[in-house]
Amino acid sequence: MTNTIDRRRLLATAVLGGAGIVGATALGSLVPEAAFAADPVDVEPGAVDPNFAEGRITGISGATLFVTGSDTVLHSIRVTDGTSIWKLQPTTFDRIAVGDGLYARGLRLADGTLAADAIWVDIVNVHAHITNLGRNVMHLDHRGQPIVAHVIPGVTAAVYNGTPAVSDVSLLKVGQHVQVIGAWHPDTNEIDVATVYAAVQ
């Protein structure tokens, strides 16, 4: 908890001090699974987490992202030297575009702006069944919806039975249930795979 407070104090100082834009620094976690983890700040059950935002980017002005949440709430998200950015892998602010989706965690300032600690761009987390396998591609069925999942050599990792991640995806089979964390291609049914989780015998 102390580490979180120290990080947030540094983040607030960066925002108030007018820091420039640099992505993928040491403050926010770059692990994509962290996007779906609970924020360490205590939030009452059923209450809105003030230090989290999600939605699609509708505008970019300087270091500020304007985001419309899935609940139609409008967010202003400030990116600083202390913001870590993920888009399939650690990246920089210039890779963010209008139309991208995002999850962001950080510190809510007095004016309502969210000073971002970490931003995950176009991140998706799907549970699906493999319907077909091709060269560097998996065809998935997610609740009746087809998804084309691209395996990116040198980036995609597989986790089998909870063991450490490996680059070998050859143990994946048609009909298998998988969990896939990846980066969505906006307005398509395609994703790039960061990590695929599967149980194998």
Q: Layout of SSEs?
A:
Elements lengths: L1 H15 L35 E10 L2 E5 L5 E5 L5 E3 L14 E8 L5 E8 L1 E12 L2 E6 L2 E7 L5 E4 L16 E8 L5 E9 L3
Parallel strand pairs: 3-6, 4-6, 9-12, 10-12
Antiparallel strand pairs: 1-2, 1-5, 2-3, 5-6, 7-8, 7-11, 8-9, 11-12
Overview of the structural elements:
The chain is mainly beta. The chain folds into two domains: 2-121, Nucleic acid-binding proteins (OB fold (Dihydrolipoamide Acetyltransferase, E2P)), CATH 2.40.50.140; 123-198, Nucleic acid-binding proteins (OB fold (Dihydrolipoamide Acetyltransferase, E2P)), CATH 2.40.50.140. It is built from one helix and twelve strands; from the N terminus they run H-E-E-E-E-E-E-E-E-E-E-E-E. The chain has one helix at 2-16; strands spanning 52-61, 64-68, 74-78, 84-86, 101-108, 114-121, 123-134, 137-142, 145-151, 157-160, 177-184, 190-198. It has a five-stranded mixed β-barrel. The model is unreliable at 1-28 (pLDDT under 50).
The main sheet comes to:
5 strands, mixed, barrel
Task: Provide the succession of SSEs.
Answer: HEEEEEEEEEEEE
CATH architecture of the largest domain: Beta Barrel
Helix share, percent: under 10%
Quick one: how many beta strands?
12
* Beta-strand share of residues: 35-45%
State the end-to-end distance: 39 Å
Shape: elongated
CATH topology of the largest domain: OB fold (Dihydrolipoamide Acetyltransferase, E2P)
Give the CATH H-level superfamily of the largest domain. Answer: Nucleic acid-binding proteins
Treating each run of at least 4 consecutive H or I residues as one helix, how many helices?
1
Helical/strand content category: mainly beta
